[in-house]
Every structure is written in structure tokens, then in C-alpha cells.
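Issue: ligand-bound run for 2-acetamido-2-deoxy-beta-D-glucopyranose - logging full I/O for the record.

Environment: standard queue, default settings, no custom constraints.

Inputs:
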Amino acid sequence: MKKDIRQMHLKTLSLYFLILVCGIGLGVTLIFCLYSIPLNSKQKQFFSLEVPYNNFQHQSGLNPINPQVTNQKDSTTPPTNIAVTNTSSKRVTEEPKEVSETPRPAASSAFLHSMTDEELFWRASMVPRIRKTPFKKVPKVAFMFLVRGRLPLSPLWARFFRGYNGFYSIYVHTQPYFVGEVAPEPMFQGRRIPSEVVTWGEISMVEAERRLLASALLDFSNERFVLLSEACIPLYNFSTIYSYLINSRKTFVECYDQDGPVGRGRYEHNMEPVVTLKQWRKGSQWFEVDRHLALEVICDKKYYPVFRDYCKPACYSDEHYIPTLLNIEFPMENSDRTLTYVDWSKGGPHPYKFGKWEVTVGLLKHMQNGTQCMYNGEPTRVCFLFARKFIPSSLFRLLELAPEVMHF
Ligand SMILES: *[C@@H]1O[C@H](CO)[C@@H](O)[C@H](O)[C@H]1NC(C)=O
Ligand SMILES: *[C@@H]1O[C@H](CO)[C@@H](O)[C@H](O)[C@H]1NC(C)=O
Ligand SMILES: *[C@@H]1O[C@H](CO)[C@@H](O)[C@H](O)[C@H]1NC(C)=O
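Outputs:
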């Protein structure tokens, strides 16, 4: 009798134990299942469009400009052990599709993203049809630096930007082989975009400009887009430049018709009928456009191939492509003038370079106030917001004179 009861107890006990083991097993299985569900819900995709995220896996908190960006799982890293057999061929062919659904995080924290041009332009071409944003939108100005490598005047720019976080975004396109830091100041960290080799006067220059525009378009808060070089300086403080750009009813792309070898002489008759000689225009490379024109430039499949195929040195696409495109398609949206002062008075293919001894109060005042132009239908003497070319040795004079002449 006692033995029977003991055996029954033993049986019940082992049953409980079995249930316990099953329960634990089920729990573990469930946890693994939940982990393997991909993390790309609709909302995540939306945010990754608004702010292209960096890879902060190793150096979180390096970028103070996008504090809302959190650690991301590098979910799109290709599997390391793809065997070259037919059993795994399905996985290999599926791989590019996965990449195009979620942008890849940047390979290094110096870069803003790691998209290919094809992915980048496709993403940037999207336009929201609902005007009201689900976030509080403060219009921003995108400062796009097209440089070779380092930005020697960055201390001046850093002083210019300081205190205006949230009103600007910075993008930097360097030569791809440049290693090192573009600038040490915090606002320049993590702002490089993937780049290709740029050759002076060739179509690769326009390609780099389009790459900068596309990267800046990914941030829906950017409303105005300025192209700058490492030799450019701001001529006014941030608040003056910001309100000038944000409140302007027109864009600032220099655009004129010029006779002679350096104007109409660069036109190539093979461009007909897409571009005729009468539509051909010239203008400074250093442009300022709004969101609408930026989109038109990066989505253009009509004029760009013509320039790529027929405008080769001594035809310089960077001086003709955007001015001609705007002249044909959107002449009423543009003011036909540039915001970037440059001195061509000494002649030659390159403008004058200002060094340490030439930077004076008189020079800067002349750049600020030397000409007259129209702004929103009114005459003004504030025609240039930026100036070039300043060589690195001019930095200390500029820093010295900035408070007095440029109010920053
Ligand atoms: C592997 O698959 C491809 C097409 O998917 C086929 O053409 C080829 O013959 C296959 N190779 C082998 C060894 O089965
Ligand atoms: C910016 O410069 C303008 C003159 O261009 C000046 O009136 C204004 O006070 C300056 N703003 C700041 C914040 O220093
Ligand atoms: C700008 O130039 C005009 C005409 O030369 C002059 O009357 C005006 O005082 C100048 N303004 C400044 C701020 O220097």
C-alpha cells in the first residue's frame, strides 16, 4: 500500500517535471522566433527616410546633430558563408532586394550613409503627397561642401554655425581616396557622403553635385540647398543668410547667354533637338536651389545624358548643365544670379585667390556692398552671401575681422 502511494507520487512528480521541461522549451523557442522577426516595420522605414541613419554600433554619441538616431542592427550585412552551389543561389539573388528595402547603415561613422548612387537617387526622388508633416518641421538650409579633402576654413564656418543647431544640415563630398578628418569641429562629424573621383571640368563634377543634392533631399526639413567649396566663406552671420534664403521667392543659379568661344562656342550640335543653341546657357557652378529644383535636377533623365555624352572639355558641364536645364524648364523660378562672389578681373581659367595680406575690411565690405541687384522684387545691395576663393593662410585674418564686418 505504502509502496503504491510512493510510486504514484513518483509518477506525478515526473509528470510535473516533464511539463516543466516542455514549458521551458516552448519559452526558449518563442524567444528565438521573436528575435528572428526582421525589424523593419513601416514606421522604421519612414524614419530611415527622414534621417538617414549612421552606424553607431561602435561609436554612439559621436554625432550630436542627429541625437534621435539610435543603435541599429546591421541586419543587411550579407551572410558571410554563401557557398557557390545551386542550393544557396536563391539567397544570393534575394540579397539585392533586401538591400533596396532598407538603406544600409554607413560603413564608418564618418559617413552619413552607404547607399549606391542608384539606391540614393531612387530614395531621394520620393515626394510626400500629404503636406502636413507628422513632426514639427523647422525649415533647414543644406550646406553642401564639394571639396577635395580637408576643409581648411572650418574654424570660420564652425563659428558661423554655432548656436543654430536644427536650422542647417551639412553634407561633404570629398575625393573618395581622402582619408582623415574633413574638419575637427563637431558639426562636421559624420557628414561625408559616399563619393566618386571628381575631375575638374568633367561630368564627374556634376555627378558629385547631384549626389550632394540627393543626399540632402533625404532630409525632408531641408528647403534650400547651397553648393560651396573649401575656398568659400560666408559674408554675413547665420541669421542673415538663413532668412535671406528661406524667404526668397526665387532660386539663385547664374544663367546667361554669352557669345564667343567660352559661351555659345561650347555648344555641340549633337545636342539637338533636346537642347538647341538658343536654349544654351552659362553660369557659375556655385548654385543655390530650392527643394523643387533640387528634385528636378536629380530626377532629370532627359538633359543629363545629353550633357554627359556631348559636353566634354572644353565644354564644362558644371557651368552649363543646371543653367540650361532651368532656362528650358523653369525660367520663372530662378533669379539668374549667383550668391557667391568671385573675382575674375585678373583673367585666366581660374578666379583670383585671396591670401592673408589681401583680406581687409575694405575687401569684405566691397564683396558685401559693391553691387546692386533685385531680391523679391525690390532692389538691394545684399547680392552676395558667400565669397571665394580664399586660401588657407587667410583664415586668421578672417577670424579676426568676422565680428566687425560679418557680425559673427
Ligand atoms: C545551377 O542553376 C542554374 C540556373 O539556376 C542552371 O543553369 C545550372 O545548370 C545549375 N547548375 C548545376 C550544377 O546544377
Ligand atoms: C547678424 O548680422 C546682422 C547684420 O547683417 C545684425 O543686424 C544682426 O544683429 C546679427 N545677428 C546676430 C545674432 O548677431
Ligand atoms: C553700401 O554702398 C552704398 C553705395 O555705395 C552706400 O551708400 C552705403 O552706405 C553702403 N552700406 C554699407 C553698410 O556699407
